[in-house]
């Protein structure tokens, strides 16, 4: 699963590739908790590195599978 995090006041996005067995429901619960508390969202990528983003800096989050086809152009 891939996570894309938009960070406010910067043009860059964080793209994080999670491990194969990552649980979407647990991740969503962690995201909701960090946003509710105003704490730091910590995510561990597939290589074991930890990425922390302060909740107040999160502009948006996208969750998806790397296997999903990415559409380009005007096709449907």
Could you give a short description of this structure?
The protein has 76 residues and is of the alpha+beta class.
Q: How would you describe this protein?
A:
The chain contains 1 helix and 5 strands. It is α+β, with helices and mostly antiparallel strands and 76 residues long. The protein has a single domain (2-64), classed as Roll (SH3 type barrels), CATH 2.30.30. The strands form 2 sheets. A 3-stranded antiparallel β-sheet has the order 2-1-5, with no helix packed on it. It has a two-stranded antiparallel sheet with strand order 3-4. The protein starts with a strand and ends in a 12-residue tail after the last strand. The model has no long low-confidence stretch (mean pLDDT 88).
List the helices and strands and how they pair.
Layout: E1 2-7, E2 13-17, H1 24-37, E3 40-44, E4 50-54, E5 58-64
Antiparallel strand pairs: 1-2, 1-5, 3-4
Keywords for this structure?
76 residues; 3-stranded antiparallel beta sheet; single chain; alpha+beta; SH3 type barrels; 18% helix; two-stranded antiparallel ribbon; 5 strands
| Overall pLDDT confidence | 88
User: In what range is the share of β-strand residues?
Assistant: 35-45%
Distance between the termini: 23 Å
The assigned structural class equals alpha+beta
CATH architecture: Roll
**Largest sheet descriptor:** 3 strands, antiparallel
Supply the number of helical segments: 1
Number of domains: 1
Global morphology = globular
Instruction: Return the CATH topology.
Output: SH3 type barrels
Order of SSEs: EEHEEE
| Strand line-up across the major sheet | 2-1-5
Low-confidence stretches: none
Helix content: 10-25%
Radius of gyration: 13 Å
Number of strands: 5
- CATH uppermost class: Mainly Beta
């Amino acid at each position: 699963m891939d996570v894309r995090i938009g960070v406010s006041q910067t043009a860059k996005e964080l793209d994080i590739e999670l491990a194969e067995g990552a649980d979407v429901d647990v991740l969503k619960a962690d995201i909701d908790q960090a946003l509710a508390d105003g704490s730091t969202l910590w995510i561990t990528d597939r290589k074991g590195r930890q990425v922390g983003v302060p909740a107040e800096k999160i502009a948006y989050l996208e969750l998806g599978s790397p296997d999903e086809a990415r559409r380009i152009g005007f096709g449907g």
